[in-house]
Each structure stands twice: as C-alpha cells, then as structure tokens.
Amino acid sequence: MWLKPDEVLLKNALKLWVMEASNDYFVLQRRRGYGEGGGGLTGLLVGTLDTVLDSTAKVAPFRILHQTPDSQVYWSIACGATKEEINQHWEWLQQNIMRTLSVFDSSEDITSFVQGKIRGLIAEEGKVSLVLEEDPEKFREALLRFEKWFGLPEREKLVTYYSCSYWRGRVPCQGWLYLSTNFLSFYSYLLGAEVKLIISWDEIWKLEKTSNVILAESIHVAAHGEDHYFSMFMHLPETFLLMEQLADYSVKRLFDKETFQGDPALGDPLQITKRGLETRARNEQFRAFFRLPREENLLEVYESFLWVPFSHFNTLGKICVSESYLCFASQDGSQCYVIIPIREVVGVEKPDVGSKAVTVCIRGKRALRFSEVREYERLASGIHRRCGVVASPQHTATGEVSGEVCHALIEHFEDNPEEVTLMVGQKSSSKAVSTEALMTVFHPQDAENLDPKMLKEKMKEQSWNIHFAEYGRGMSMFRTKKTRDLIVRGVPEALRGELWLLFSGAVNDMATHPGYYSELVEQSLGTSTLATDEIERDLHRSLPEHPAFQSDTGISALRRVLTAYAYRNPKIGYCQAMNILTSVLLLYAKEEEAFWLLVAVCERMLPDYFNRRIIGALVDQAVFEELIREQLSQLTEHMTDMTFFSSVSLSWFLTLFVSVLPIESAVNVVDCFFYDGIKAILQLGLAVLDYNMDHLLSCRDDAEAVTILNKFFDSVTNKDSPLPHTVQQAPVGNNDKMAHTKVDIIDLIRESYEKYGNIRSEEVESMRRRNKLYVIQTLEDTTKQNVLRVVSQEVKFTAAHLDDLYALFKRQHFLSCYWTMDSPALLHHDPSLPYLEQYQLGHQQFRTLFSFLGPWSHCANQDALSLWAFRLLDENQDGLVNFKEFCCGLDILLSGSFTDKLKMLFKLHLPPVSSLDVPEDGIIRKSPEKGRGKVDLQAYLKQWQDELLKKEESIKDLPRIDQCQFIQFSKTLYNLFHGDPDEESLYRAVARVTSLLLRMEEVGRRLQEPSSPPKTSPVQSPADGELPTVLDHSSETPSLPGPPGTASGPLEVEWSFAFEQILASLLNEPDLVRFFEKPVDIQAKLVYAKSAQLKAQANP
C-alpha cells in the first residue's frame, strides 16, 4: 500500500528493521520478528508495539523508504502485509521511477518528484474506494491492519475502527475494535499473547451498554453462548450507535429479507460508511419524532427562537428542514413542536437583518416567526426554493408541490368529496368507495339532543375549537402539553377521524398521493391470492356486534381497504388483527383516510407487526417485560415465569386493546396511540397490571390471572360515550360476585400518564433495538430446533453433529449473501416459508461445503462430483438444496453402508444428474411467493401425500447404466482413490472388476446371438488387473462410441449393466469394501469446516 510520504528517523529504527534490498534511491526493509529469524524477545516486543501504536508504517511487516545519496533524511512511501505485496511496489519503482530520477540534478528535485508521484498514486486509488471516508489517509492505514490481521475477503467493507480494551475474565487486553459490514472484529497482541476475535453480526443475541464495579461503562456483546465486554472507548455512545446500526442492518437484510430500497446510501453492502450509518440513524429519529413519510430526510438543522403566540414569548429550539417539511421542536422541556408542510407555505417575508429573523406565512392566515437564526438568509432562500418547485400531483420520492397548487388541490377535494368517489364492483357488494365514516352513517348525531352525554360531548368539541383557535388547526398546529391533556380526556366523536389523520401523519401521505387509493382499488379488483382468501374468511369476524359490520356497506368498505393494502404491500399482505384494527378506523374515518391510517400503523408506527412472524409485536412484548421488571418489581418477584405476560398481552399490542376492551373505551386508547405511539400502549399495559396488582399477587396459577384480567377489561366503561347501547359492547365475563367495580377508561388512561408518563419515546426505541436481536435469534433457534427434530429422524448423525452441521449450513447460506444483494440464496429466503425451506444453498455454496465435509476430499474430479451430487439432492429442481436434502446425502456418504454409498455413486452417473446440458444454477423457484399469485394448495397437499407414501427405494428399481455412463462411473472410482495409501491395490481391484463385468457382458451377448457371432469384439477383454483400453483414466473424457449406423470403430453394439451386477462384482474385492466401509471421523470434518469456511471466501 502506498503511503503519504512521511519523514523517518532511521537512526532510531535500525534495531527494529532489517534491510532486504536497496539501491541509490530506495530501501526495502523487513520488521524484526517477522519472516525468517522471527520470534524471541525482540519479536515479542515488536509485536506488542505494532498492536498498540496507531500507525500502519509502524505495524506493517515490510516497508519501502526513499533516500538520496547526499541526504540523511528518509521518507516512508510504501508498506505491505506480505513480501509479495511489497515486492510488487518495489518492482514498480524499479521499472517506472528509477530511470526518470537520473535526469534530475539536485536531491531536492528528486525527493519532490517522488513525493508528488506517490501522492498522485494515493489520490488515484482513493477516488473510488475512500471518497466517502472522513480521513482517507488514516483509514487506509486501518484498512491494511484489518486485512492483515483477520484475513477476511477483500469485499468485506471496513466501516470504522476504535481503540479499546477487551476483557478476558478480569484481565483487560488493549487493542483495536474493527466494525465492518458483516463482522465485529478485535485484535490485541501484548508480549506474545495474541487475542483475535471475529463475530458476525447475524450471530449476536444481545448488544447493550452496561456498567458494574470493575467496568464503569462498557459494551456487552453476547454471541455463541459467550459474553464479550469492550470498554475504555473515547467515544462510547458513538461506537454503540454504529454497532446497533450494523447489527440492525444485518438482521433486516439477512433475516427479514428487507432491503434499503428507499435508502440508496445503504442499498449496497459494499458502500456502507460510518457517515452513511450516522446519517441514516439521524433520519430515522427525525422521521419517527415528527411522524413524517419514509421519503423524508433531514437536510438542515438551525438553532433559533420561535415566537409562541399563546404563551407570548420566544422559545428556544431547533428548526429541522427536509425535502417537503419545515419542523420545529423546543428544547426547554415544554414539549412544544410544530410541523409545517412546504405545500402549506404561501410565502416567506423578507428576512429581518437586525434580529436575524425569518417569517413563514402559511395557509389559514397564520405566520411563524423564527428569530436569532445564525444562517437566516440560507434558511429563507431554501424555503423559497422549495416552495417554487412545482411537480405533478402524483408524489415522487424527490418531488415537491408548491403551496398554492397543493392548497387548491386539497381544498377542491374537501369541498367536492363526491369527485373522489370511485365506481367499482366487487363481489356484488356496494359499488362506490365510501366517502363518509361509518359512524356518521350508522349513528348520526342529533344536534337537538340535550342528553347529558351529548352535552358533555359538545363541551369537548368546544374545548377543541378553542384549542384550534389558539394553537392552530391542521398540520401546522402547535403540539404542546395541553394538546396531550385534551387527548387524555377523550377526543369528540366528530373530530376523531380528523385528529387521527393529523397525529399519525397519514394526512401527509394522503395529500401527496391524490387518487392513489382509487387506483389501488381498481388494480386489486378481482385478484385472487392467499391474502384475499384470508381476508374473505375474516370479514365477518371484524366487530360483528357493531351494526356497521352487519351490513353490506361496512363489509364492502372493509374488504376494499384490506385488499388494496395487500396489493400495495405484498410482503405483509394480510395478517390477522389487521381486520379488527381497520374496522375501528373505518368507523371514524372515510374509506381512503382509513387506508392511509392503516399504512401509517403498519409501516411506521408498528413496524414488523403484521407479518408471518409478528416480530414487531414480539419485540414490544419484550420491551413490556423489561418495563414490568423496572416498574412493577413486586409482580415480577411473584410471577417467576415472565412468559405469562407475553402470552396475555399479545392481543393488546396487535389490536391496540380493541379486542379486549369495549369499542367505546378502546377508541380512547387509539386516540392516545396516534398521539404518543407505542409508548401509550406500554403505559396503559403497566397501569392495567398495577390496578390489578393485589388480585394478581394472590393468584395460584396463570389461568386464574387471565380470568382476573378478562373480568377487569369487561368492567372498563366510558361513561362519557354518546354511543347508544346498540353500538356499545356488552361485557363478555360472568356477572358473579367477584366481578370488578366499574372503571372509567378516561381515569385509567389518566392514571397511566401520571404514573408512567416519564417513560420517554427515545428510551422505548432504544429498548426496541436492544430486544430485537434477542427476539430474532430466539425465533431462529426455534426454527433450528424444528428442523433438527425433522431431520434427526432421517439420518444417523448425533444431535451434537446435527447442531454443528446446521450452524455450518446456515453460515454458508449467509456467506453467499454478505457481499451482494442479488444472491440466489438471499432472493429466495423468505421467513414465511416452511422452516425447512428458509435456508438453502445454491451450487457454488454447496460445492464449498461439500468439499469440506465429503469423505473423498482428494478426489481428482471433486467439482464434477459435487455438481452431480447437487443435482441429485435437488429433488424439486429449483436450483437450491435445503438442509434436510443436504444432510440425507451427506449421511449416506459418511455413515451409510457399502451398498448405500455405491448406490449413491451409481445414481450420480444416471441422467439427467450427469448430463452436460443441465444448467448448473439459476432455475426459477416454482413455489409462489407470499402474497403474489394464486397458491396451488392442491399441489402442496399432493406433495405432502407423496412424502407420506414414499417407500424405500429398492436396488431393483434402479435403471441400467449404459456404456458411456459405465465408463464415467469407473473413472470416478479411480479418482476417489487419489492420495489414498492403498491407491495401487485399489486401482488394480477396480481394473479386475471392470474386466470381469466386460467379460460377463460379452459372454451374455454371445449366448443370445449364437448364429451370428460378431467379427469384432466390442471390447477387448484385458487380463486381470489391467485397465481396459476404453477406460484409460489418463484421458479427461472417455472414448465414446458414435450413434448406431455410424463408423465409430469396434464399439457398435450397445451394452449396459444393472446395479446388482456392479455390486456383486465389487463385493468380491475386499480392498474396495474396506475403502468404502472405512469409518470417517465426522467430528474432525466439522472442526476443519468451521476453521476453513471463512478462509474459503477470502481465497476462492
């Protein structure tokens, strides 16, 4: 590696370096302790210095110095990890520089020319690979150390590195922590003690910041059942954040089959940088806090004061600017923030130079004044520029719409709702997309009703109208503590849909995607998928007690929303609980609004909730358990098994308490959820357990605890609800003496905020990230146990060996995915598939693992043998082999009987396995992907029935092998013996068997044709122990006869052998029987494969 020229004090370095070569201008040196004569005390000291000192020039074992004859100054210009690498640099200098230097007259000119040339080479190298790094020179040095110490493939992208200590028991080892795209690596070398650690991100179970008596603050990493602690970081929060980002990136890409399609900076694993990860984390936090669409990225941040009209003072905070939004959040703890869509901005007043103020005028005759903005002119011009860009109404990832156009568009649709009605027909149901919330259709409010509940409802509406007048209405409304207080007291029925859209951010999606839902309904009309079948099955189970869903109007609207979303997001498709949630949304929101609310819930507010493995819900349950331990310690001491809380609370999270609370109470919970996110659900869950603490502490078992909670939920009421009794749900519990006293939902929610409102959203997100790794790995472990239970019934491997084989197989699958986004294994990986199909290998990955574990690793035609084995094991011909197929084939080769092994070798030479015209890989998967196309359930049932009726294959069922296949079979036998101590005797044994079979075939043919014996024997029968001419193993391909009727020499008559003939002949050779029955040390094979698996990727 070329280095930026740096002056070297050669006098002090003579004891650490040995000269290897020199000329008039350059010196090549080797570090003491490396190569020949290395070791000893000098080697130990040098190795320790190399690890501790942060300079590649000091740690690389080879270097090149530049010198001039009349100068005592030396300059380091290159270093290398191997002698081959440094020799390439040395030869380049000899060929390209030495001749040029002779034309210079002075030493200064020579040194200046060499330095300029080296800097040019470095700049040329860094144009592509290091352009995104903050300090390319230092990063180059760290990259060299990383490659030298760990031997990972060149494609592995180093992201960043840190100096830290790794604790081995109570002893710290000072060294370097390297964070790359797929691995966490650590290296330390102190006085001869080398510590090298490589952990892939997908193997980590736990990643957290910890502290104890010995370690003030450290990072804890749990993987492979071992705990690793790293401490003494200069920037521990930054390090931990990057580790979280890399672990999360790996989990999403490898386990959940998610790609960063909307994030080009992270779409390619080879282009990930520290800066890119930090930017991504900042963007995610920005979008989550302000509930913005996924397309928005934080572009600029300004510190400023905002004039708050309702408080009559300036509040300090930060302005956050994205492509389409201008947001402000205060820093004084008042929780005041405001979101201004650029589409609602109608103008920007001329900046006030004296107060450095920018005034933004927005729709509704309102203005926001930001003062003391350091770069106020830049802010004003940026807003002007964004307002001036006019795009089409259809939203794109980078398009903005001017305030006037979008304002007119929104007002037009608000004033003319009938124009967004889409006429469609579906299953003889209602033919129009509903433009009214179902609650207004089935329970219209009577303005003249003076019922006390209706009067209270009017008072709530008046409170909100006053709030709107003071704080604004719509997206640019100020969100403060008073807003939350109004939410806690309950949202009026008439305003619920509007406020849900506002606080969830769904209003932004709907405003920037006009007509999108109508197009989806048209496109999804008549589609038939697994998702649509499940939707039809659950339609009448969605709030069946509500009149709206006892009619065709409500059922049709629910069908359209769910089908349209399944069409929009086939990765999720449809999941149970989505129907219940969507039913509630349709009660208070128009059909299109309900669709966008569902999008906000599924894709932003509850990520990964509604998929086959409900990972998001499981993660939040783990967070809930953690909060129970912190907040309700009495309960955790009594309930030793925390899984109870997971089982009982799953429906709370999936349906936002809608499935356990009466509908008139549940909607108040949904109000809080749309304002505060998952934090509101966690708080309410804690409040429910706290309220029932005494009863839960006295229970004897889980069933009694479940009964107590169910009765409590039945007792929850909403005394202020204006809904009639025909709409309100009746309690489902038994009205016995143990029934709870009535609990008002507003009091329960208020108590949850008073007791647990100090839980911050940032803490919840941190707990989510921390628990996600554990949840994913637990699911993976469950999958492994299911796979091993099935496979163990088919093979002779021990449980420990099967466990190791699964780890190797899964790792090989991931190794094919680490450095590319389009590997066949990654593209076909789908967690929703049966567990046996989740991890599969293509031919290239299979060949590598087969070479490590197969019994005949020295076979001369190993590649051909692995290809044939792959085709044989790939029963469904999808170009992939699953773990069961792999183990069944390997079990025969390692533990099978002589007959089983020979039968498998025999089948490898039968068509189409051994055919040359079969493609090696790339066959399109036949199984339909989840959510796409019609699933052929009959095909799955037939496949399952065939597997049940499958009988053991008899040797009589095998077809005969023809002459060409027999020749290749014999050659394979010869190749198997390569390198064996008894190679010569085995070679002669096969020759005798081949000769015997050919004689038997010749005799049999003569007996069948006694009247006209052939003039020329088809095969010259050799003497015993000699190889037949046609089977000469020195040639690469056998001499094959031509088709009938062609002049092809003496081989004109077709002949073939049955498997029984070959088996009987080979059984007569004790040497061959001993060779195939020789026991294989499976444990040694596994140990070797573990050590060589990663190296094989580095040296393909």
Write a compact overview of the structure shown.
The protein is 49% helix and 13% strand.
Give an account of the 3D structure:
Interacts (via domain Rab-GAP TBC) with RAB11B (in GTP-bound form). It is found in: Cytoplasm, Cytosol. This is TBC1 domain family member 8B. The chain has 1100 residues and is an alpha+beta fold. The strands form 6 sheets. It has a 7-stranded antiparallel beta sheet. Helix 32 runs parallel beside helix 43. About 11% of the residues have low confidence.
The helix count comes to: 43
* Overall average residue pLDDT: 79
Give the % helix: 40-55%
CA radius of gyration is: 37 Å
Structural topology:
Blueprint: E1 2-8, H1 10-13, E2 17-22, E3 26-31, H2 40-52, H3 56-59, E4 62-66, E5 74-80, H4 83-96, H5 98-101, H6 107-129, H7 136-150, E6 158-168, E7 171-180, E8 183-190, E9 193-200, E10 204-210, E11 218-223, E12 226-231, H8 236-254, H9 264-267, H10 274-290, E13 300-308, E14 313-321, E15 325-330, E16 337-341, E17 345-348, E18 358-362, E19 366-371, H11 376-388, H12 403-415, H13 438-442, H14 452-471, H15 481-488, H16 496-504, H17 506-512, H18 516-524, H19 530-538, H20 552-568, H21 578-588, H22 591-605, H23 615-631, H24 633-638, H25 643-655, H26 663-676, H27 678-691, H28 693-697, H29 702-715, E20 716-717, E21 743-744, H30 745-756, H31 761-791, H32 799-815, H33 824-828, E22 840-841, H34 843-853, H35 862-873, E23 881-882, H36 883-895, H37 898-908, H38 937-949, E24 961-962, H39 963-976, H40 983-1008, E25 1056-1057, H41 1059-1067, H42 1070-1077, H43 1082-1098
Parallel strand pairs: 20-21
Antiparallel strand pairs: 1-5, 2-3, 3-4, 4-5, 6-7, 6-12, 7-8, 8-9, 10-11, 11-12, 13-14, 13-19, 14-15, 15-16, 17-18, 18-19, 22-23, 24-25
Helix pairs in contact: 8-10, 8-31, 16-22, 16-26, 17-22, 18-20, 19-20, 20-21, 20-22, 21-22, 23-25, 23-27, 23-31, 26-27, 27-30, 32-43, 34-35, 34-43, 40-41
Organism: Aldrovandia affinis
Main location: cytoplasm
GO molecular function: calcium ion binding; GTPase activator activity
